[in-house]
Design goal:
It is a single chain. By secondary structure, the protein is mainly alpha-helical. It contains six helices and three strands; from the N terminus they run H-H-E-H-H-E-H-H-E. The chain has one domain. Strands 2-1-3 form a three-stranded antiparallel β-sheet. Helix 1 runs antiparallel to helix 6. The longest helix is centred in the first third of the chain and has 9 residues. It starts with 7 loop residues before the first helix and ends with a strand.
């Protein structure tokens, strides 16, 4: 899957964000398209497969909402950019 040019800006910003508050503002504007949510979760090695199977996203999910549910996942913008197609609203 790909990440289109203009969507990389917010992902790069997340690499340099200092405060949790600023990180959450950026994450509010990154939307993961439906099925890609599971691909993103599966790409992380710290989450149990049983948790992934129980998680059923209802359509598009923002990164902020996703990582609020799975706080123990270390957020890696590089993994996100390689695994999912995202849309900045």
């Amino acid at each position: 899957m790909t990440v289109m040019g203009r969507t990389m800006g917010p992902l790069r910003r997340l690499l340099h964000v200092q405060s949790q508050q600023e990180k959450e503002v950026v994450m509010r504007h990154i939307v993961i398209r439906g099925a890609a949510v599971l691909a993103l979760l599966a790409a992380t090695t710290t989450i149990a497969l049983a948790q992934i199977e129980r998680f059923e996203p209802a359509g598009d999910v923002t990164l902020q909402a996703l990582f609020a549910d799975f706080r123990h996942i270390p957020f890696d913008p590089v993994v996100v950019s390689e695994v999912i197609t995202i849309h900045v609203r």
